[in-house]
User: Fold this.
Amino acid sequence: MCYSGREKTIPLSMKDMPRPVGAPMAERMLKEDETPLFTAKNYVRATCLQEAYDLNQKRANAILGGGCWMKMGARSIGTLIDLSGLDLDQIQEEEDCFTLGAMVTLRQMEAHAGLCRALGPALKKSLRHIVGVQFRNCATLGGTLYSRFGFSDVLTLLLALDCQVQLVGAGLVPLEVYAQQPYDRDVLSHLHIKKNGRKVAYESFRNTQTDLPVLTCALSTDGQTVRTVVGARPGRAKRSSMELALGATEKEVADYLQVLQKELRFDGNLRGSEAYRRHLCGVLFRRALGQLREGM
Ligand SMILES: Cc1cc2nc3c(=O)[nH]c(=O)nc-3n(C[C@H](O)[C@H](O)[C@H](O)COP(=O)(O)OP(=O)(O)OC[C@H]3O[C@@H](n4cnc5c(N)ncnc54)[C@H](O)[C@@H]3O)c2cc1C
Assistant:
């Protein structure tokens, strides 16, 4: 993690950043002289998902994932709802899908043999820049997906696949729908990743190794057409409505990119300008396409 040279150890990547596009409102960003800490009046280790859901309906209460994001803010929480007693830290591989509990850590995902086999190098590529191994041992999938950060590497990768989130209240929701929804008081219990043989490639660009990404890009293919997801624009990752033939000619690729760069909205922030991101989109897209074509 990157620290400022002053007494306060506020990670630079957060301190220098305005509240990221799409960050949960609950996490108020720190003032210069504030200590990073949230406080909670009560703590409940939920005994079932329904209990967690019921408690979470109160605005003052909050679900605790790994707490890595929450601890960056100074929120006063009524009841902190801990999901760690609900066996949600398991990754199960079935014939047609992977089921991951909300408390699975990013590191568990990265180290899971079945997931690595199914998603190839893209899985590790999407996770390895997220701060460091110790951090990824804490940060959870549930906290990551709920937060739907504009800069999320994980969301970019998963949107290129066929995924569904399991919510306690709303039930099964396709990830591409959930990714666009506003924050609510539902509790995410699981993620299902369909095993349908899609090959995926992942690319991101960062100014420094563990900074937040300037742009993220994931491509996946069923062997016929290519699906594109671009994130950190700096808005939330979005899957393009258009697909490209895997064997498209150079002219078709150039045309596709031109339309893609118009379809997706890019913006500037301290990490890169709008024009730079638009340009990077073409670069990362071509790198990822090359990997898909080579069969990775
Ligand atoms: C310094 C820093 C750098 C980072 N860099 C990157 C990066 O480069 N790329 C990247 O992709 N990500 C990055 N992240 C985000 C990180 O990967 C996680 O997504 C983030 O920490 C949230 O996970 P968590 O387990 O810590 O969630 P928490 O902090 O525990 O929770 C976050 C929010 O989600 C809610 N929540 C948690 N679990 C659930 C659930 N099951 N159901 C409903 N709501 C829930 C909480 O109430 C809270 O509002 C970074 C985070 C930090 C703090």
Notes: Residues 11, 13-14, 24, 26, 62-70, 72, 83, 102, 106, 129-131, 139-140, 142-144, 146-147, 149, 151-154, 187-188, 212-213 surround flavin-adenine dinucleotide (CB under 6 Å). The chain has a mean pLDDT of 90. Residues 12-82 form one domain. The chain has three domains: 12-82, 91-194, 199-293.
